[in-house]
Amino acid sequence: MSSIAGTALDALDRRLIALLQANARAPTADLARQLGVARTTVVARLARLESSGVIVGYTARLAATEGGQGVQAFVNLSVSPKVARAVIERLSLMPELRQLAAVSGEFDYLAVLRAPSTQRLDALLDEIGEIDGVLRTTTSVLLAMKVDRVA
User: Fold this and answer.
1) pLDDT at residue 62 above 80?
2) How many domains does the chain have?
3) Least confident of 40-44, 66-70, 135-139
4) Percent residues over pLDDT 90 in the chain
5) How far does the signal peptide extend, from start to end residue (predicted)?
6) Helical spans, DSSP H, in the chain
7) What is the CATH number of the domain that holds 125?
8) Residue 75: closest CA among 51, 56, 94
9) Same domain for 132 and 76
10) What is the CA radius of gyration of the chain?
11) One domain, residues 33 and 81
């Protein structure tokens, strides 16, 4: 048994969560059918997962953020520790920056960018490389999302 937010999750909970991540608007009857359980079981599980804070909300994903438009890239950044705060501030001013995470390993940060074209992505990468304190970057362009459970 695993847990999220201090709540123990069994296999049924995990399967229910995966179905909701794929389609948060799925009717409880459809979820029950896919899980092979009664609709009341799904309703009770959802209520427990919501009240315990495992499920904190439902959302809509827009086509512009789902690969319907533009190009998405993952940029690893090595940054001088003395100017890391200034680098983060500069990056946060870029509207194409979707996420920025501090990570362990060879790089200090992982940035997720979405640009309307490869030309704009190229310009963004140049801008990032010119920020004082950015020592090195490597970029991976998203070709296809195989599993996406992020809202």
Assistant:
1) no
2) 2
3) 66-70
4) 65
5) none
6) 11-22, 28-35, 39-51, 84-92, 118-130
7) 3.30.70.920
8) 94
9) yes
10) 20
11) no
Structure tokens at 77: 């950044």
CA distance 76 to 101: 10
45 and 69, same domain (yes or no): no
Q: Supply the range of the domain harboring residue 27.
A: 2-51
Give CA–CA dist 32/140, Å, rounded: 39
Q: Are the beta carbons of 72 and 142 closer than 8 angstroms?
A: yes
Task: State the virtual CA torsion across 44, 16, 55, 1 in degrees, nearest 10.
Answer: 90
For tokens 């940054």, name the residue.
79
pTM of structure: 0.63
How many residues are there in the chain?
A: 151
> Which is it for strands 97-102 and 134-141: parallel, antiparallel or unpaired?
unpaired
In a domain, 57, yes or no: no
- CA-CA distance, 122 to 131, in Å (whole number)? 15
pLDDT, tens digit, 9 for 90 and up, residues 83-104: 999 999 999 989 889 999 999 9
All residues at 6 or more sequence positions from 140 whose CB lies less than 8 Å from its CB, including other chains = 73, 74
Euclidean distance between CA atoms 54 and 49, whole angstroms? 5
Q: In this structure, are 32 and 71 located in the same domain?
A: no
Q: Provide the residue type at 12 as one letter.
A: L
